[in-house]
Structures are given as structure tokens and as C-alpha cells.
Specification:
mainly alpha, membrane, GntP family permease, transmembrane helix, cell membrane, Glcn_transporter
Length: 481
């Protein structure tokens, strides 16, 4: 029988090599990897995997006899069922927040709260929390003009503002749902989404704090001036800086699309832990109905749809009288989210085929004497995939597919949340020329490639390693099992 580790190595080489060497779209590379892994996996390994999951012997045998295409399509569909609505609605929320001015209102309100001198902290925190519902590249597109405008206003600290934007958006993108990578991860590793939101936010705040101190040091060591460029004239930036806020929505309305899903999901998570059958909470008729209502809206799909409706209502209010309506904005958002859904679902198929090789049992056997080694292993796998092919989302998908079987291991000494967080932090290492986000930040900030490599790349390495240390300590002190 072929060793699962050999099959894993072949699968990773195909995915990474396909993306880098053959310049394949990640969707095609992941599907090709899934096909080759499925082809190499013997029927006996598939049957053994199904039996280890508690599947009836007859059903396990039936799975082993299924065709390769059918098994891949099943895993592809299962992943779409987990994350399809969430990613589509997250895309709509992000687009509506941008078009309505809600995102800009949040940033400007944060600046008023912190003051001009503490603008870098405002940019750091704003980009982190905006990076939860809004895609990473969208946060960069939104905030970079504001960073340039702020530099014109205060006359210094341009690199510091750029690094703060990058730090916040990057960590939210890999740690806190409903960002696409964490959404896939919580489904694959059976982590409650509310718990991932809370844990990802806590770890994220530690990591961006470390990133802030690195950014302060880098800004002192390599001060970079604000430069004119063909795509970002300083005169245009001055117009953005002078833009009136009278037409932006109120802060309360601007926050609703983000707060509604966060509050309901977190409330549902808390109630699930507190309101067990027979407790006073469940015996009161009124409280029982209230709990049922919160649980209804706390469902991740319903919560994110509710947030999407709020975002659309805010946009409709701001676009009142416009002839174009809301359809073009929704269409643009769904085109953006659709590509993410396809890549993520293909990643689910690849991860599912890897699981059927028995890779989880193999890794469990290798680490049975010291399970805490699983956390740095999860971090390392994600880091290798990210460095090799550039995409943090693909790194999250690949690493969670390899390790998802460990999440249901009854003998695991700590909660699977820590594995998920370690994968999220590992997916930050190391950004360079093969990373689309690297080029987005270079071109929008007007940094040279050399400047970006000595500032942005080490920034994410520092934050990722900080996250790993925090996770290791937390898993020892608060295993949550």
C-alpha cells in the first residue's frame, strides 16, 4: 500500500507546481491535485478511512467502490454547502459597505477617536476589523488612498501607515470568519464558527500588536517618502483628503452589517455553552423563546444573510434616487465571491481526497508521544505551502485538509481551535513575488520590490511567529477539552 505521506507529497507538488510552474489557476491546480491523489489511493485505504469515521461497513465498502469523479464531486459539493452562502454574502456586505461609504465612515470615525498623532493605531485597528467582512485586496484598495491623504496631512510616517494597513488586513484575512480561508477551515476542522471568531480576534490582536512594534522600528530604520505615480497622483490624493463626510452614512448604520452577524453568532455560541437542558434559562417560557430566536439568527448562514440585508438597506438609503439600483453592485460582488467559492470548493475536494488516504491517522501515529507537536506542524505545513505558491487561502485549505482528521481525534489533548489558529498564522509566511497581495500593496503604495521585501515580508513573519507562540501558550494553559 502506498504510504499516505508519499501521496500527500505528490498532491502538494502538483498543486504548488501547477500554480507556480504551469501558471494554472488555483481552481484547476487543486482539482488536478485531487484527481491524482484519488487515483493513487487504494480502495482498502478509503474503506479503512470510512470505518474510522464510524461509517457502517456496507457504506464504507460502497464509498471505496465509488468512481474517482464521483468522490471528488461529492467533496466539492459538501464544501460548497458549508461555505457557499457565507462567502457570497460576505462579498455583498463588503461591496455594499464600500459603495455606501460605510467603510469610509468607520475609518474616519476611528481617526477622530484616536486623533491624528495616533493615526497608525487607527489604521491598524480599522484594517483588522474591516478585513473580517471585506476581502483583503478590497481593504488595501480602500485604505491606501486614505493613508496617502493622512501622510500629506501630517507630513511623515508613510511606511508606518502602509505597514499598519497590511498588518491588520492580513491577519483578519486568515484568522477571523467570514473571511474565505477561516470559513473553510472551521467547516473542515469542525470548529464552532463563534469560537473561531473569538479566538481569531484574540490571537489577531496579539499579532497586530507585534506587527505595530515592528512597523515602528522599520519606519525609523527605512523612512520612505510619499511618491507621485501615474495611477495615484498626489493632486488626486489631496482631493480625497479634502472630501466632505456629509454624504457618508451615520456610524451606527455603517457598523450594522458587521455587528449583526458578529453579535448573533457570538450570542449563539455563548448560549450553547450556558443553556443546557434543565437549566433555569431553558425552563422560563420567555427566556426559552428568546433563546430559540437567538439560535435561529445565530445560525451562521442566517446571521450573514441578515448582515447582507442590512448592508443592502444602508446602500439603498445612500443611493436613493439613483437610476442604476442595487443590481449592479450585487452582480459585481457575486462575480468576486464566485471565484473564491470555486477555489475553496476545489480545495475541499483536494482535502477530502487527502483524508481518504489515511493521512490523519498516519500523522496521529507520528505525534502520539507528543501531541503538542501538532500545533507547530500545522503552522509549518501552512507556511511551506504559502511560501511556495503565494496564496494564504490555498495554504489554509491545503493544511486544514491534511490535518482535519485530527480535529475529531477523541484523544487530542487540546481543542481543535488551536490547530485552526496555527494554520491561520502559518499561512502568513512568507509573502514574496509569487503572492498577488504582495504586488497589490507594492503598486498601490508605490514601494519598490526591494522595499517591500525588507518591510512587508518580515512584518508578516513576525506576526505569524508571534501568533504561534501565543497559541502554544494558550493550548497549554487553556486546553478547552
Amino acid at each position: 500500500m502506498t504510504d499516505p505521506l508519499i501521496i500527500l507529497a505528490v498532491g502538494v507538488v502538483i498543486v504548488v507546481g501547477g500554480i507556480i510552474g504551469l501558471k494554472l489557476h488555483p481552481f484547476l491546480a487543486l482539482l488536478l491535485g485531487a484527481f491524482v491523489v484519488a487515483l493513487m489511493t487504494p480502495a482498502s485505504a478509503i474503506e479503512q478511512f470510512a470505518l474510522s469515521k464510524g461509517t457502517a461497513p456496507a457504506a464504507a465498502l460502497a464509498l471505496a467502490k465509488k468512481g474517482i469523479g464521483e468522490r471528488i464531486a461529492t467533496e466539492f459539493g459538501n464544501t460548497c454547502g458549508k461555505i457557499g452562502i457565507l462567502i457570497a454574502m460576505a462579498a455583498i456586505i463588503g461591496k455594499c459597505m464600500l459603495e455606501s461609504g460605510a467603510a469610509e465612515r468607520i475609518i474616519r470615525s476611528m481617526l477622530r477617536l484616536t486623533g491624528i498623532e495616533k493615526a497608525p493605531i487607527a489604521f491598524l485597528v480599522s484594517s483588522f476589523f474591516l478585513g473580517i467582512p471585506v476581502f483583503f485586496d478590497t481593504v488595501i484598495f480602500l485604505m491606501m488612498p486614505l493613508a496617502k491623504a493622512m501622510t500629506l496631512r501630517i507630513g511623515k510616517n508613510y511606511l508606518l501607515l502602509v505597514l499598519c494597513i497590511m498588518a491588520g488586513a492580513a491577519m483578519a484575512n486568515s484568522l477571523v470568519p467570514p473571511a474565505p480561508g477561516p470559513l473553510f477551515l472551521v467547516g473542515e476542522m469542525h470548529i464552532p464558527i463563534g469560537m473561531m471568531m473569538i479566538g481569531g480576534t484574540i490571537v489577531g490582536l496579539f499579532t497586530i500588536t507585534a506587527g505595530y512594534f515592528f512597523a515602528l522600528w522599520a519606519n525609523r530604520k527605512w523612512p520612505i517618502p510619499l511618491r507621485d505615480s501615474l495611477d495615484a497622483k498626489l493632486e488626486d490624493i489631496k482631493l480625497i483628503a479634502a472630501k466632505e463626510t456629509i454624504h457618508l452614512p451615520a456610524l451606527g448604520l455603517s457598523l450594522l452589517p458587521v455587528l449583526i452577524p458578529l453579535v448573533f453568532i457570538c450570542a449563539d455560541t455563548a448560549l450553547t455553552a450556558m443553556a443546557t437542558p434543565g437549566t433555569p434559562l431553558t425552563q422560563s417560557p420567555f427566556l426559552g423563546k428568546l433563546i430559540s430566536l437567538i439560535k435561529f439568527f445565530g445560525d451562521k448562514n442566517i446571521a450573514i444573510v441578515t448582515g447582507g440585508i442590512a448592508a443592502l438597506l444602508v446602500l439603498a438609503k445612500e443611493k436613493k434616487g439613483s437610476k442604476e439600483g442595487l443590481t449592479p453592485f450585487v452582480q459585481a460582488a457575486l462575480m468576486s465571491g464566485g471565484g473564491i467559492i470555486l477555489i475553496t470548493a476545489a480545495g475541499g475536494a483536494f482535502g477530502g481526497m487527502l483524508q481518504q488516504t489515511g493521512i490523519s491517522a498516519r500523522i496521529a501515529d507520528m505525534t502520539k508521544d507528543y501531541q503538542m507537536a501538532l500545533i507547530p506542524m500545522a503552522f509549518f505545513i501552512a507556511a511551506v505551502v504559502r511560501t511556495a505558491q503565494g496564496s494564504a487561502t490555498v495554504a489554509l485549505i491545503t493544511a486544514s485538509g491534511i490535518l482535519s482528521g485530527m480535529a475529531s481525534n477523541a484523544h487530542l489533548e487540546f481543542h481543535p481551535l488551536y490547530l485552526g489558529l496555527a494554520i491561520g498564522c502559518g499561512s502568513k509566511l512568507v509573502p514574496w513575488m509569487n503572492d498577488a497581495g504582495f504586488w497589490i500593496i507594492c503598486k498601490l503604495s508605490n514601494l519598490t520590490e526591494r522595499e517591500a521585501l525588507k518591510t512587508i515580508s518580515p512584518l508578516l513573519v513576525v506576526m505569524g511567529l508571534t501568533g504561534l507562540v501565543v497559541i502554544m501558550i494558550a493550548a497549554q494553559l487553556f486546553p478547552l477539552v
